[in-house]
Amino acid sequence: MPIEIRQFLSYKETMQNRSPLTVAEYANDLRTFFRYMKAKRNNLRAEDIDGLSIDDIDKAFIVSVTEADIYEFLLYLAHDRRNNPRTRARKLSSLRAFFKYHTHKTRILDKDPAEYIDTPQFRTGEPKYLSLDESIELIDSVQKTDYAYARNHAILTLFLNCGIRLSELVGINVSDIREDTVTVLGKGAKERTCLLYTSPSPRDS
């Protein structure tokens, strides 16, 4: 990764407490963008983009990026990579964060090329969830003869009762559990407390 990208990723992780997964998404999005830019500047075919190295991207290259370049990149994502609006919006968010950082923090940019670009519109669907019967069926699917039965049962119960993410689950320590509550660390290093409770299965009543 070029030094300018590494500086940005380090800032996001160490100063803004972004999770390693979020930082990796930033890295992937920026890699895709600068591969596209290199291909565009060198008149390469779209199918050659994924194999390009961006190690030689430097300050001058970053400064040369325009608003039009970013709009063309979003068009490439839609037409060539078949990215849906939500994915394009996420990648644009990564570019905005990157160019904003180098405009206001390192000041290598006099003008932020992504500042006024509209976010692709997408519909927010209804939350997806399991019905009560589906939840019971999932819990019952855990084999009681399995040596890891207690662990697997606890994992599924936490997912169903607390609505936590996988990353939040694996980050739970014993010290985070106090009586009938558990404290989880969510996205953006935000803590929240979830209530733990147990109730008999309708099938046991």
Approximately how much beta-strand content do the residues carry? 5-15%
Q: pLDDT below 50 for ≥5 consecutive residues: which ranges? A: none
**Number of beta strands:** 3
Instruction: Describe the sheet with the most strands.
Output: 3 strands, antiparallel
Q: H/E element string?
A: HHHHHHHHEEE
Mean pLDDT: 87
Counting H and I runs of at least 4 residues, what is the number of helices? 8
Q: Using only CA atoms, what is the Rg?
A: 23 Å
Structural class: mainly alpha
Overall 3D shape: elongated
Query: What percentage of residues falls in helices of 4 or more residues?
Result: 40-55%
Describe this structure in words.
With 205 residues, the protein is mainly α. It contains 8 helices and 3 strands. The protein has a 3-stranded antiparallel sheet with strand order 1-2-3, with no helix packed on it. Helix 1 (3-14) packs antiparallel against helix 2. The longest helix has 22 residues, at 20-41. The radius of gyration is 23 Å and the shape is elongated. The mean pLDDT is 87.
